[in-house]
Design goal:
Oligomer: single chain
Strand order of the largest sheet: 9-8-7-12-10-13-11
Largest sheet: 7 strands, parallel
Mean pLDDT: 95
Low-confidence stretches: none
Strand content: 25-35%
Number of strands: 13
Number of helices: 6
Length: 246
């Protein structure tokens, strides 16, 4: 893919004429103002994609001519971000930056010191998850990704511990970490869980539970990062330290 805009479809269409309608079609026609002859990319968000050329435009849809499809292989090393709930607008920012930086899955975490709470009504955790999934979807399109990271259900600390035990490796970003991220032995394949705490920090009890399960407490540098930015910095480091950018 080059710099063509990306649009998500429920399933990859066959080569030939295809009507891109619904929300994506309206966005192409009314927001992006696509014109006949312009190029775009269709993707199912699961790694498959195809180039397409606009042939006709109306107010709420565009007709395209779809080329041959291709599939990008998944990374051997998947980064699963466990993100403590940030407060306010930083919640969306954390998901946006992690998605643009290449995260493969996101797990919202109700850490002890989170100011934000996805509680109060039975449907609030699912509404929060759907909100994060929508942000990840738009960020994936913006960064021209063919795989949209999946946002999982809100997790407790006990559930994060279980996840760490099942993973190929796990890191906890912590300013008091005894190891630099560049000095840690990283797996070549499987799930690598990266835990980012809330603005108030990971509690000592949580840190003890996470490290007892096998996670390594690491620091990224001298600076203390906001929770919304920490995952993006870590993903950049992991891209350079592993084969994920190759």
């Amino acid at each position: 893919m080059a710099g063509e805009p990306v649009f998500l479809v429920g399933a990859m269409p066959a080569t030939g004429a295809f009507l891109l309608d619904g929300e994506e079609g309206r966005h192409a026609a009314m927001v992006r103002r696509m014109r006949p002859g312009e190029q775009l990319i269709l993707t199912d968000g699961e790694g498959s994609w195809a180039p397409a050329t606009v042939t006709a435009v109306d107010r709420a849809a565009v007709t395209v001519r779809v080329g041959a499809a291709a599939t990008d292989p998944p990374p051997a090393l998947r980064v699963v971000l466990v993100q403590a709930l940030p407060k306010g607008e930083r919640s969306d920012l954390a998901v946006d930056l992690a998605t643009e930086s290449g995260v493969d899955a996101i797990v919202p975490w109700q850490a002890a010191r989170c100011v934000a709470r996805w509680t109060g009504s039975p449907d609030k955790p699912e509404r929060g998850r759907q909100r994060w999934q929508s942000v990840a979807r738009e960020a994936a399109k913006q960064s021209r990704r063919t795989r949209v990271p999946r946002v999982l259900s809100l997790a407790s600390t006990a559930e994060v511990v279980t996840m760490i035990r099942a993973a190929a490796g796990a890191l906890v970003l912590h300013e008091a970490g005894s190891s630099r991220i560049s000095a840690v032995s990283l797996p070549a394949a499987g799930d690598l869980v990266v835990v980012v705490g809330p603005e108030g920090g990971i509690s000592p009890d949580e840190l003890d539970q996470l490290t007892a399960a096998g996670a390594v407490a690491v620091r990224l540098g001298r600076e203390v990062l906001r929770t919304s930015a920490a995952s993006a910095v870590a993903l950049g480091a992991l891209g350079a330290l592993t084969d994920r950018w190759r």
